[in-house]
Amino acid sequence: MADWHPLPLGSSLNGTPSAPTSAPVIAKLELLPFNALSWEDFERLQWRVMRDVEGLRHARLYGDRGQAQFGLDIVALAPDNSGVALQSKKYTRFGAAEIKAAVKKFRTTDRPFSVDRLIIGVARTVRSTGAIEELAKQGRTLRPISLELWDAQELSHLLRGRPEIVIEFFGLPTAEAFCLPFKVDMTVVPPAEVVAVREAIARTPEVTTGAQQFFDEAAAASDPSQALSLIEAGQAGLRDAGFGPHAAQHDKDRIRLLADVGRAAEAARYVLDQFWVALDQGLSATAQLTRSQLDELTKLAVTNEHVKRYRRVSEVAIDLYLNPLAYVPDIDRLRIGDPIDEVRLALLAGETSLANDDQEWLTKAVPVFTELSCISSIDRVLRTRLRLLLAETTADWSELLADARKLNLGHDLLGLVTARYARDCALHQKFQEADLAWDEASGSASLARQWGEASTWIFSRRAFRARWNPFTSDDLLPLQTAIRRMGTSSPLVPAADGAYEDALAALSDQKLRSAAISAQRALRDAVTASDWVGEERARRALATILIESDEPALAARHLVRAGATKAIDALGKSLPRDFIDILDDLNAPNYWTVGTSYRLIAAQADLVPDERVGAVSERLVDELAAAETGTTPDLPAFATSRYNNSVKALAGMADRLDATRADNVLSHFEGQPPVEENHYRYHDEDEAVVVAKIALTHAPLVERAVPHLVLQPVVHVT
Fold it and tell me: From which domain of life does this come (predicted)?
């Protein structure tokens, strides 16, 4: 097993080919010239097919790559966590003997994880009867492991629809002769100084573009159809010259004229689209003003059902967006409007529920998410966001990860999918997997020139390390700094710029409703973008606003998810008569949420209702047992420790334990390893309080409790 080692990011297998190897192009190519590749480039190509066509990750190599070996042994995991092995050599000849030898080697080699598929890779075409028969024979002996042969014909089949790989390894002429029809897209970005000059021409753009003449003629026209054509011509001239906002100022006239000529439904659809754009950008005031145009259209087209329906869509969306407590109606009430409106309403509600950890609502919405994600006409980003909600709710990531890693969604969406997967892994304490996924996400974002997301995901990776591998986060700081200097980019998922700052400003002015709405938007943006740092700070800000708004239970939910132990202490102590029921969060999938929940119970131990004492104390005793077996991840040196905070909660409740649980607790402390001189345990003081209360309330345990107190270490943590 020692000969297997992870495929490093800087491995030459992940590199580009030494030089494109062109094929003689006379007519349409049937096979790619794999034999013309150097052995190093053939190995790179094999791994590219595994990684970008098959979607495999977490690769491990066998032995050292080198020219003497002329071959590659690699195992990797598919998105469904099944293992795949590849044996590849650049054979000059390949027949039954080579197949038999490859299978024998596979059988006699230990691997780091189980394998469900064995692939034999070869650069030439295999057609001999003996080789085909031997392949079938060996396939039968390997069952249930499947055996595949990637010869020149099969590799050509896998690459025919992947022109980006063919271009990289064989050049553009070969790709044009071999691949399915494709188009090379080149993004043209105007120089910054040109844009600045154009935007500076803000004197009278209607006059400089000639649009004003169209608008004047429209005002004088008596025929609504003619006036509409003139207005649209003027707007087109403004947009073509780069003055889109100026063109939008004439929308009111265009919408009125559309209604006059019997096209009210078209006008309403246009207004609703503009409404969604404003809401995406967090411009709620603009969205409300845009919605007022639908009110006007309703008066102009009283009987038009489309207009009424679109107006209802805008009302539901505004109610969702402007709800300070993130209330979400039943999913069936959101099935209104055109399919695109149903998708947008479902996303707004779904991402709000995800940010507020409303698993019950999300679970009920799964059938609707599934149905809407299959609508062929919706934008690829919207569809991917629906699929992300499905994966996060059902915990089934295999299909979405497979599509993303095979680059069926493009590098930009590969970045988003893997970043959200990283967040999900982080919340479920899959520490290393989360770290690797954020790493992959930032790399994919860089390839898509999404510099903002790339920097955010490196920062998320750094911040999350504090939860499992502290003191290593600064290793990533130089990389984050370098990515930040690459420039800016438009976010893949629209976000409200300054929502977090708006929340703090409104809180400072005691405009609590506005503050909560902005904080909810900041939280939703952070969660949908997998911004770990932004999510934590938004939760803290939202909790502060909710406390000021006399919503302590909702505030506590956000504080425990942020691991805000000092704030949760203060909240618990500020309510000497009101118990905050946070017990459901003791089932959270990570130690910091559970640990912070115990911290709140500790602060309110006297307020735990009598009927809940049994359930709470049972959880606390179970926590001690789990610590003994080491079955729950924890960082005892940190304030969010689930074990230390469970002991702290016991210190508050020990005088309410029944005899059996008191005995269990005392046995746990008695069974701890002895402490060295001048050393201490983080929970020593709380342990002493627990044991003292047990001694005072359970007379039969005094003879065990008192000696334990006497033997407590002298040095205590302060």
Answer: Bacteria
**218: which residues sit within 8 A by CB, 6+ positions away?**
226, 227, 228, 230, 231, 234, 253
CA distances from 668 to 22, 586, 697 (A): 71, 21, 18
Q: Give how far Cα 341 sits from Cα of 322, 376, 377, 426, 602, Å.
A: 18, 14, 12, 32, 47
**Segment 403-409 long-range contacts (CB within 8 Å, at least 24 positions apart):** 403/55, 404/55, 405/51, 405/52, 405/55, 405/56, 405/57, 405/79, 406/52, 406/53, 406/54, 406/55, 407/52, 407/162, 407/164, 409/380, 409/384
Element (H, E) at 5: strand 4-6
| Cα–Cα distance measured from residue 368 to residue 354, given in angstroms and rounded to the nearest whole number | 15
Residue 93 tokens read as 């000849």
Structure tokens of 148? 């595949």
pTM passes above 0.70? yes
Question: pLDDT digits over 401-444, tens only?
Answer: 999 999 999 999 999 999 999 999 999 999 999 999 999 999 99
CA-based nearest residue to 593, from 552, 645, 549, 541: 645
Residue 122 bridge partners (DSSP): 89
How far is residue 46 from each of residues 54, 107, 136, 166, 420, measured CA to CA in Å? Answer: 11, 22, 22, 12, 28
Q: How many C-beta neighbours within 10 Å does residue 339 have?
A: 13
Per residue in 631-657, pLDDT tens?
899 999 899 999 999 999 999 999 999
Q: How far apart are CA 217 and CA 225, in angstroms?
A: 12
Q: What count of other Cβ atoms lies within 10 Å of the Cβ of residue 265?
A: 18
CA-derived radius of gyration, the chain: 32
Measured between alpha carbons, how far is residue 211 from residues 112, 196, 205, 254 in Å?
69, 21, 8, 14
Which neighbouring-strand residues pair with 76?
Answer: 84
Provide the H-helix boundaries in 604-701: 610-629, 642-653, 659-670, 684-697
Residues 6+ apart with CB under 8 A from 277: none
Q: How far apart are CA 530 and CA 565, in angstroms?
A: 23
Return the sign of the alpha-carbon dihedral for residues 518, 520, 522, 524. Answer: negative
Q: What is the pLDDT of residue 3?
A: 66
Interatomic CA distance for residues 150 and 57, integer angstroms: 19
Alpha helices, H only, 221-283: 224-240, 244-248, 251-260, 264-280
Which residues share a beta bridge with 89? 71, 122
To 10 degrees, the CA torsion angle through 660, 583, 562, 433? 70
Cα separation, 677 vs 687, whole angstroms: 18
